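My current task is to audit a protein record that another person submitted. I have pasted the whole thing underneath without changing anything:
***
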Amino acid sequence: MEVAVGFALNPELVVEYDSKQGPPNAKLKILSTAVQTAGSSANVATALHKLGRQPHLFGLVGAYGEYVEDILLKHVSQSLDFEWTPIPALNRTGFALLRVDRANPSEKVIGRRGEVLKNKTEEGRCLIRSCGIHDSVIRVATGVSISEVPLALALFERGQTILTPNAELLNHLEEFHRLLARTSILVWNENEADQYLRSQGIKKTRRFNIHFIGLRAIITTMGSRGGKIQVDGWAERLFSTQRPTGRILSTQGAGDWFLAGFITAMLESGERLSSLANPPESLMDWCVFGAKVAAKKLSFLGSGQGPSRGDIE
């Protein structure tokens, strides 16, 4: 195990159709259907494995396992090529539907996300601790919601940690700051960054000191415009995006693949965050590689589908 990732995991039904096929008002013909694993944490773990790393996924699932999504998840999880540990703590396993229109092309995702049951929280925390995660393992929590904070705190008890928050978590500043106190790197998009800065009364044009919340670095992704890095004591610096090669089939999961690429480059460098000099040029290199992976991912359909290590060379 090189990277421990939690906690978003769910089955996803992918439905492909062509809205321009046939005469007007004709019954829509489904071209293909498939069920696959999804969820931001599962996507990151899948991407890490495809890039040649050894992830371990901690996936939140329903505590009672009696619904159709549990059957679907049991089926698709058999094809996972990496180790994973189910944490049965949700009121119900999450589920997603990805609709892909070949004529547009466009894609729409609808879904339901489960909530962590309070009476299952401590059991989940104990399960994480019992896995004996070594201090050298990078710990990653993606799309963390307010109900998942206790589990993320258990995962982040030591070592190098990376957090991507759910936008909802930014409305609960006390819990968000508790988690940031154990976070080495915060990765979010510019909308989430703006939401947080507004809540703190900080103008977008002002650089703010990240030292008070314990972070080593903040990475803000800005879609096709690349992103920026902020490190305490070092001015913000932009990193560029990479032009997609080939037809764009799906934008879903690009951020997850960026994160996996970033972590892969970090592991391959052999450097630790605590040893980086100012300015940390390696951090820039990791972000650029992550952007390269994300650009390649756009030519794959589905959030959990993307390039292998050989495709990036």
